[in-house]
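Reposting from the mailing list since nobody answered there.

I have sequence plus structure tokens for a pair of proteins and want to know whether others read the tokens the same way I do. The first protein:
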Amino acid sequence: MTWHLTSDVETFAATAGTFLSSSPVRHTVLLTVVAALRFKGPHAYGESDPILGWWTTPSGEVSGALVRTPPYPLTLTGTPPEAVPAAAEALATTPLTAVNLPAEAVPAFIEAWTSLVGGTARLGRRTRLFRLERLTPPAEFPPGTARLATAADRPLLLDWFQAFHDYIGEQPPDLTALVDDRIESRGVTLWERDGTPVSMAARSRPEAGMTRIQFVYTPPPHRRHGYGAAATTEATRYALDAGATEVVLFTDLANPASNALYPRLGYRPTEDRAVVEFSP
């Protein structure tokens, strides 16, 4: 039983791809990250080489995976319990500032990492993964209509994507490229009222039949009118119409409004995750 690490995305995809595709809901992040690395190159997320890894059983079966694309935290899938401290050991010589992992794995990783490397650990953002069971639109939509964003919306999207990332405390290495990619893939749904956009919800490109709803954002002056629910509903509908068999999204557990909203739209909790931040 051991971790195998590489920076070669094709080697990783060939070895761990079947494992990731076997559970596209729980592996949503790794599936989309690997797809981006394969399409845009190994430095799609920054100048540093990615670290990709898979955990194998004595029989050679892959039963866990990890990806690190600096400056983003290391992301770890669900794994057998013994693989969690083993991941810390395998990465002990790698500068690591944060890890995103299933909530139940947090204590074991913290204990292993701080024992090996020292320093302190702090629990950061906690999230919940939701899976669409059956889309349940609001009983009454707010005034307005949905449409897909176009290049003409680029200045607005740059502002809104930046505001979204400011809220969650993460900054993409290239915001412009992120927005342009979503526009090109027709992946941003806008809800507009009287011709003015008031909310947005984006969606990822499909991977293994799975699409993730992302970047749900409503500017403060337009909140508490149901626009976010309307935009999310229509983004979900676009994903389903495009052939997605699984639609997922993450919420911030510190945001009670979103955690109450998505179950009303037909989403059900699947997994809780947490970011752990490390300092010397």
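The second protein, same order (residues first, tokens after):
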Amino acid sequence: MSHVLKPTTDLAHRIGLVYPSLSGAHRRAADFVLHNPLETATMTIEGLAERSGTSTATVTRFVRVLGFAGYSEFRAALSEALRLAMAPVDSLADAHSTKSTAFSTFVTAIKDQAANLNETLAAIDEKTFSRAMEALLRARRIFIIGSGASHHVAAHLDEGLTLYLDANVIFTSSRGGPEKAIRHIMNVGPDDLVLAISLPRYSRGTVDLAKLAKDRGATVLALTDAPSSPLVPIADMTFFAPARNRLLPNSPTATFALADAIVAAIARERPDAVAALKELSESLLWTFYQ
């Protein structure tokens, strides 16, 4: 598994804060650092400029935008981020030493998802969470966008939020194709919330719909994998869930966990809805297997 800079580190947080306002050249430098932190940590400023397709002057301005006095201070911060945030040494050793069999791949995949879950938990910020909860609870309507692997996460959120919120929850991608999704988003306004979900390789449709919703005044909550995601500069709030997988393009495991946690937190804030569902379930006991 290639190492990327975890969103829990101070350096990734700094990049995430300024990423929406970065120029194209600065973004190329940021993207290279986020996706190649190990390599960057050993590079000279000239090396980073060459590999990121920028210039030494651009790299110098980039690290100053991040709040560092110079490149040496930036590289020291990157080395510290790697020391604190790299995957455990034993997991790295496992990746090299385990024989390549179906069973070893199976076990390694589960370990990788456990690592993604641990990073997701570590990245949770209480301030962001509180803002997201407030927005979900006050929204008049909630529009959910997700395609590919994210479609299934979106469907889970649609079902869960519908149970516990008074708001009208609309899964824009559930049926009718992209044209219907666009019609839904064309109707959003300042009282609405759009929950956009996208993982690598990011869906252009999801990003475009999130932009449209933002332009129309809606609040945008994103579930994505890293500060370099194209959803980050659009969203008002972002939850990060790493989606790394050694063999597949991505894994939605951690994003599913985030979605499930969001529904659980909403249920906790709506005891009246929980009580009503309990009463309904008791009236339908005869339909259950046990």
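Reply #1 (J.P.):
I read it the same way you do. The radius of gyration is 21 Å.
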